[in-house]
Amino acid sequence: xxxxxAAGLISICAIGAAFAQGAPSNPGAxxxxxxxxxxxxxxxxxxxxxxxxxxxxxxAGAEIEGTGHHHLLxxxxxxxxGEDGAEELLYSIPTDDNHxxxxxxxxxxxxxxxxxxxxxxxVLGDYxxxxxxxxxxxxxxxxxxx
Length: 146
Description:
This protein has 146 residues and is of the alpha+beta class.
């Protein structure tokens, strides 16, 4: 009986993990900043162009294979390396000042950031705002706003 219960719990955990994980990404897919580079000094407002290769863009809620939508991380640790570590790669990206969602399928944004240094990272999310598996994310860049 204990073996059956343990096997059932393992199965339930495995099913739960599978549903929490993001949609599959295409091999070699990349997201990047098309008009900014690490170390750039800019003046506000800042226009940011989101680059994507190897996958397509679709709005949040549209479950279309090989697509996702952009999320811009501002002034936070790299995705998967923060306080919650790799676990955050398994769940929907939150919405707040550090996690900007572009669920309408936008490929650019205009931001007002305070003068000083800021870190930026792009993460492609699936139809439910979960990073793909494996994740499609840019390197973290640091810009300085004059």
